[in-house]
Specification:
By secondary structure, the protein is α+β, with helices and mostly antiparallel strands. It has helices spanning 3-24, 27-38, 43-50, 59-95, 115-129, 143-146, 181-189, 229-244, 297-302, 319-327, 340-343, and strands spanning 133-134, 140-142, 166-167, 173-175, 194-203, 214-224, 250-255, 260-269, 286-295, 311-318. The strands form two sheets. The chain has a seven-stranded mixed β-sheet, with helices on both faces. A three-stranded antiparallel β-sheet has the order 2-4-3. The structure holds phenylalanine.
Length: 351
């Protein structure tokens, strides 16, 4: 084989080996490539030595060819060496992905408040301004607090398995079906005067477009001497106007809850049609908000309060429905799916 042919073969081999080194993307691979071609025992070095055996006439041409190959390989390796520096940098960045010296992306998405949280924070603010304090209570509770002490007798349909999630426990326990259990806990732990609200999760066996097995209520109650229905009406009218707007009307309809007497439900004028009737209010002109009434003497008896001295009112309503109304959400279940896109549409601050 002539030296020229040999040079051609070495050039081809080099090209294959160079491609391998590039795909390795490591500085050591470049060094190994240099040694195997340009090192003391390298292929190009051997080629130069072979020149000695070439006849005098052929030597200039062969020398030129071998030199061209050598220059080509040296040039390629220099180029690879400078590339190797960026490979090293990339490897470091991959190993330590957090570069605290990089400027912060100002556009970065921050979390937003859940629509129910927005409503809850607003309600708390309104009630605090009316002198209420916020309390908390258990979500898993004894039957006594959720039902018996609230004058809900054993045969009451609200105790039916359909509505209530019971918990397997030595004593009769359940997931609270309303926040009214907090009335009992608070009245037992404290003495009048009481002016309290309690937001929290409640649970019922129900699941469709407008019902979810877990939802959020807020309970409120006031106990003192000489508390009347007028105080109840004033409180509810004030908070509804604060939340829905001061120009909307509010109304009370007689209703029944075992733990209040008299009992009522309260509505706010539909903000979409201003009471004229539309799809949102199902053509009634009103949006139903919650239940209320004067605390039943049997409830006071259950907690050991003297009902001839004290009177009080209580109210309770769902916060999810208010969030739906406020943000015009078609499906209640959207509130519980945790969809990032959906939740991202709400503000970071509630006011
Ligand atoms: N607890 C009742 C419910 O969940 C609401 C209510 C609370 C009614 C307080 C009257 C007084 O439907």
């Amino acid at each position: 084989m002539s030296l020229l042919e040999k040079s051609e073969i070495i050039k081809k081999e080099f090209e294959t080996d160079r491609a391998k080194a590039v795909s390795d993307a490591k500085p050591e691979a470049v060094e190994a490539l240099r040694v195997s071609y340009l090192g003391r025992k390298g292929k190009v070095t051997a080629l130069m030595e072979d020149l000695r055996n070439v006849s005098k006439e052929d030597r200039p041409a062969a020398g030129k060819a071998v030199n061209l190959i050598r220059q080509f390989i040296e040039g390629s390796i220099d180029e690879l060496k400078s590339q190797a520096r960026s490979w090293e940098l990339a490897a470091i960045i991959n190993r330590e992905p957090l570069d605290v010296t990089l400027p912060v992306d100002e556009q970065k998405q921050v979390g937003s408040l859940h629509p129910v949280s927005i409503v809850r924070q607003q309600l708390i603010k309104v009630f605090r301004s009316l002198g209420f304090t916020v309390v908390d209570g258990p979500e898993i509770d004894f039957d006594f607090f959720n039902f018996s002490a609230l004058n809900i007798p054993d045969h009451h349909p609200a105790r039916d398995m359909q509505d209530t999630f019971y918990v397997d426990a030595p004593e009769k326990m359940l997931l609270r079906t309303h926040t009214s259990n907090i009335q009992i806990h608070t009245m037992l732990n404290e003495r009048p005067p009481l002016r309290v609200i309690a937001p929290g999760r409640v649970f019922r066996c129900d699941n469709d477009m407008t019902h979810t097995p877990m939802f959020h209520q807020i309970e409120g109650f006031v106990v003192d001497e000489n508390i009347t229905f007028a105080h109840l009406k004033g409180t509810i009218d004030t908070f509804l106007k604060a939340i829905f707007g001061s120009t909307l009307k509010t109304r009370f309809r007689p209703s029944f809850f075992p733990f209040v007497e008299p009992g009522a439900e309260f509505d706010v004028e539909c903000g979409v049609c201003k009471g004229k009737g539309c799809r949102t209010c199902k053509d009634t002109g009103w949006i139903e908000i919650g239940g209320c009434g004067m605390i039943h003497p049997n409830v006071f008896e259950a907690v050991g309060y003297d009902s001839s001295r004290y009177s009080g009112f209580a109210f309770g309503f769902g916060m999810d429905r208010i969030a739906m109304n406020r943000f015009a959400l078609p499906d209640l279940r959207q509130l519980f799916e945790g969809d990032y896109e959906f939740l991202g549409h709400f503000p970071v601050h509630s006011n």
